[in-house]
Design goal:
heterodimer, A: 289 residues, mainly alpha, 11 helices, 2 strands, 73% helix, B: 638 residues, two-stranded antiparallel ribbon, two-stranded antiparallel sheet, 25 helices, 2% strand, Proton_antipo_N (chain B), transmembrane helix (chain B), NADH-quinone oxidoreductase subunit L (chain B), CPA3_Na-H_Antiporter_A (chain B), transmembrane (chain B)
Amino acid sequence: MIEKIIGVAAYILLAQLVGGLLDGLDRKISARMQGRVGPPLLQPFYDVRKLFAKQIVGVINSSQAAMLYSYLLLMVFSGCIFFAGNDILMSVFVLSTASLFLYFTAVITGSPYNSIAASRELIQIMTYEPAVILACVGFYMASGTFNVSGIIHSDMVMITRLPGFFIAFVFILTIKMRKSPFDVSTSHHAHQELVKGVTTEMGARNLAIYTVAEWYEVVYLLGFVALFVINQQWWSFVLAVVVILAVYFLEILIDNSSARVKYGAMLKWTWAMTLLAAGVNLLILMLIR
Amino acid sequence: MGVAIFLVCFPLLVAPVMYLIPNDKVRGRVTYACGALIAAAALCLTACWAAGGMQVIEAYDPAAWVDHLILAGEIVLAVIVTILCFKYHRGVISLLAIVPTAMIAFLELRGPKLAEVNAIYVDHLSILMCLIIGIIGVLIVVYAVGYMEGYHEHHTGFVNRKNYFFMVLFLFLGAMFGFVLSLSLLWIDLFWEITSVCSFLLIGYTKTDEAIANAFRALWMNLLGGTALAVGIVYLGYRTGNVALQSLISLGVAGRVIAVIPIALIAFAALTKAAQLPFSTWLMGAMVAPTPSSALLHSATMVKAGIYMLFRLAPAMPGTTTGMMVSLVGGFTFFMASIMAISQRDAKKVLALSTISNLGLMVACAGVGRPETIWAGIFLMLFHAVSKSLLFQDVGATENATGSRNIEDMHGLMYRLPRLAIFMFVGIAGMYLAPFGMLISKWSALKAAVDNNNIILVLFIAFGSATTGFYWTKWMGKLIAFSHRSGQKESDHMFPEEVLSLTVHAVLMIALCVLLPLISKAYVDPLLVEMFGTYTDVLSTSILIMLVVTICFVFAIPMLSMVYTRNLKMNMKLSYMSGINAGNNKRFIDAMGDKKKIWLVNYYFEDFIQADRMMRYSQIFAAAVLIIMICVVIGGVL
């Protein structure tokens, strides 16, 4: 019980710090890749602090903000389920419910750019969901439980049994982290054909809330990545940090070296990848069980 | 067990009375009274059965004349179908009614002496069906009183045959009760055929060319299933001399070769009734019927008859070719129908495809035939019946109010017809959203599929959930999107009956979600023990409790957010339109300098999906699977 409380408290308090730092790191590394100096490491925090100090700017009545708050809170809630060591499938399902509220936030405005981006956000959800569900199935098959605490208490390093699921998950991480080539609904840079996608109509404080929610999400997703590595050995935690940083760097690299694709291509590639990597891995797991 | 007999006979006797009452008002009153009586009887049956310790009850040894009455009923039905087939120049179809009836008649009159069988069989599964029919079914009939009033106000071109409509509805209710309460397959066959014919009559209600064509498509597909059922019964009768459903199942569980062919044929019949591929087109066509019949027959109850049959057979399924066939066809239907639903703009078509898709999942659960999958299947059936019936009625009421059931026309419904939009929102949320019932069932189906090493089903569920989420969510988005027509004030023209039925449904759905752990413990677990003998927890109590907590959170968070944000100070701006807004968020200035209205449309991927072509290919594939598998089953025995 005490472990659960520590997990939840750590997530609620630290995830925004870690997420913000990673965001700063992302900007810095991206800038260096592009031959720029880049902003200070703490720039994301300065941005958010400034945005929070402003009033809310919206295009319709308060329902837009209500949807956005729901998005943030449900996102945190799904992370809490995960970091409390509870059922991973439940956590994933609540996560997708949270994503729906981001969709609602965008679509409720009736603004043209926002609405198209919202539809694309939905396509993204449809694209990555099979890989996430299959990853949960993979954990269950390898460890015999859907509980996060059960999974990290197993003897082996999951990735040795689940390499295909890992590849598929990293593949969809590009979508979830809104990195090019799959940043079809919004990107971190306002150079999109949809202006700023789902965040187009989020003004001032709303944008700050959205950013914080994104930080929570990134930490949750990286926690998911860590789950592929962590077991009870001390070195597995070190390994997990290394793997997380490597994956994060890989995403930045991909982001900076590829152009955005059309959503159709995103859907086809991702599903093919999910089927090939995770599907084949699943088949093998079932055969050797 | 007089109550059970009352449940079967009373609606059948009321039906002709309905036809004879010419006055709408009087008929409405009689409908309420009879509906209330039926619902009360269903509850009474449940109470009697529960008071008796929830044991299996077999009762009522019928006299010979009752059996002859059943046979006479079959023959009358075949005659009616034949006459109608020839009247509309589709004589060939009548063969599918004449041949099985002749076979059944021959078995009864000239065949071997059949063992005496009790008529009535009551257990957990039939009680569950009775409750669905008795509560959801009656609510739909009550809703129909108001709906048909509005329907004929809007569709003045059709002949008003309301008395006929209500006659068929009551006929159908009686047949459904008979179907789930009978033990003898001969009786089941009769009630099966009655439901097929009721469906046929209701689809053809408007008598337009399209309705007639669709009605006959539904007829031949269902009669084909009926023929398979009859062949299975005759085979069983000749080989074993016992046509009780339960004895067939125990033969199947014991792995006796004699049971293989009848089970395969009955499973095939159930697939046609549950509108699985390749027979899904009849359910699509059935959507031309007035909404209450779509809700009652083609979503909440009749198609569930196929599922009910498969659940009954489920203990005999694991490890057999028939089981593999059923789970393969079900999983395939679940996935394909959910993709096709993405491309539909017509709300009723979406509901139809989603029904087919969800039935597919239930069928797949039955095909795997393990206690865990049946647990999931039972909950899927329960939640689907409530949510879908709510949605059908809501879409029907919306159509009566706005004159359209195109989802695009529901843009901003929340601001125009808030009452209908909220009910629709609740219904859709119940269909797929975490952590409502359907999703929990899907979750345990997924777990069971993994445990049984059924990789195809795991993949179908993983991808099918994603596509399912897509078409529901974009519909929800339409409802709440800021409306470019928010200026139009509309009234929802709902009759009190409709409001009553919708409210009860919505309350029922939320109650079922919250009470899920309780229902699981008190009802579904004993059901599985009854069916399989042993049973272990599917989802442990701690998970189920966690689930209820999650439900409360997912309800509470948006509510609190609403309350919190209501009083926030906001700076309102125009939405971003590259600087060409025309004064408000509804218009922009086009290239010619004119003001144009914004029109927002969802993605449907019509080019990419091409539902018609996809349906055809899926049908070919599924038909091939069915034919090959049935040949393997029969060839393996002979």
